[in-house]
Amino acid sequence: MTRFGLVLLAATLVSASAGLVPGRAMAQAADNQIDIPHHIANSRQVETPFGVWHLPRWEPIHVGGLTLDMSPTKHLVYMLLAAVLVTLVFTLSALSIRAAQARGRPPKGFAGAMEATALYIRQEVILPNVGHHGEGYVPYLLTLFFFILAMNLLGLLPWGATATGNIAVTAALAVVAFLVIEVTGMRALGPVGYAKTIFYLPPGLPGGIGGSILKVVLVAVMTPIELIGKLAKPFALAVRLFANMTSGHVLVLALIGLTFLFQSVAVGLGASVLATGVMLLDVFVAFLQAFVFTLLTSVFIGLMRAEH
Fold first, then answer.
1. Which domain, by its residues, includes 167?
2. Domains held by the chain: number
3. Cα-based angle 225, 229, 230 (whole degrees, multiple of 5)
4. Which of 81, 115, 219, 302 has the fewest Cβ atoms within 10 Å of its own Cβ atom?
5. Is residue 268 part of a domain?
6. Global model pTM greater than 0.70
């Protein structure tokens, strides 16, 4: 059964059980339910083992007719934490690897694992898909992989939050990937070659008046399709990452909520076993989604560079 199917099953059980309890008992059951949106949504406070940390509120910035609220949020805090962790991990790993190489020994332990992971992503994911002379894209794509992975894993910790469960975060990552892909096309193909990726005409069209009319018709038909294709790539990247990271947390909370709803030891044990299994699956999904986002971005860059 898919993750979406399990979410529907848990939601159905909750809804059905609430419908079986009338009057006062139904109100009591509602009080025992978990507020799932509260736990997965962005907020102005960060929950910690030592209490709730209320984030500062700043005055909005008014630019023309736009109002920009630059106040920090929970997901922003965890994004910054992920960035700091990635920076520290690879800075310390690089120092450890350099020290091991100075002694003429291979790196071991955690630093060796980080080096092996980075080399695998570089050699097996980035370079084969980006293509010839793809070294310039390695730093960006490696950073993208480990940054997304760190955000995904932070959401699995107690009191943690998954920044990639926010569509604004995944959309921003996808927009940056889109800009890299399109700028890559402009640099690799030149202005005329890049324009052909928008105003597409298949080769081998006939000449003459009939051919000219056919070309106009094809340009009018194919140009919107090509533009939609360009926009569909970042849209798919953003929605896939957001949906996968959100669905796992919703499923875990729904299963745990069954314990409080039914107030039964047997239901609690069963829900705990299922929730533990889903959490273990979420660890795999955290790695998989970071891998898929990096892989597809590499493929899109390689396809754009190969147009010529």
1. 25-48+72-305
2. 1
3. 120
4. 219
5. yes
6. yes
